[in-house]
Design goal:
alpha+beta, 4-stranded antiparallel sheet
Length: 162
């Protein structure tokens, strides 16, 4: 199946929703961290005895573990369904730093539109292998050209790793 080639205006229309999704992931990540710290404290206090049914802190421990599991499941759902499920690429470290890549075409080749959380719109792109360090500002001509070529004629480039 050919990859979707995003257009700049299409990405820009998604920015408010993506901000909200990444904000939710960040909120869930903080929640995991907070509850994990509490689990560590309980574990340091009780060790293996924490799992004993008579332990007075067992219910609290199980509650923290459940919150962690639910938060992790929700983060995974957002990343797989709401982000990657749309054809958006999550570069390594992207969720933590708020980076998303959108496959697109430019002059007959695959490239990525690169959006960083906090930017009001997509303003940069990079070659498939360049990553964030290779970000280049979008010119007006590129804004118009990106994603408008016939993506079906391009190879379904395995370099566009998802």
């Amino acid at each position: 199946m050919p990859r979707k080639a995003f257009r700049v205006e299409e990405v820009n229309a998604m920015v408010p929703e993506l901000e909200a999704l990444l904000g939710e992931v960040e909120r869930r990540r903080r929640q995991v961290q907070e509850h994990h710290e509490k689990v560590q404290i309980l574990d340091a206090l009780w060790g293996k005895k924490l799992l004993e049914s008579r332990n007075p802190d067992r219910a609290e421990f199980l509650m923290h573990r459940q919150v962690i599991e639910q938060a992790v499941r929700e983060m995974q759902r957002i990343m797989t369904e709401d982000i990657a499920g749309r054809g958006i690429r999550l570069p390594q470290g992207g969720i933590e730093s708020g980076l998303l890549d959108f496959p697109t075409t430019l002059d007959g080749r695959w490239v990525y539109l690169c959006w960083h959380r906090g930017e009001p719109q997509v303003n940069a792109w990079h070659e498939v292998h360049a990553g964030f360090a290779g970000r280049q500002p979008l010119t007006d001509e590129q804004r118009w050209k990106m994603g408008r070529g016939d993506a079906s004629s391009l190879p379904d480039d395995s370099l566009l790793d998802f």
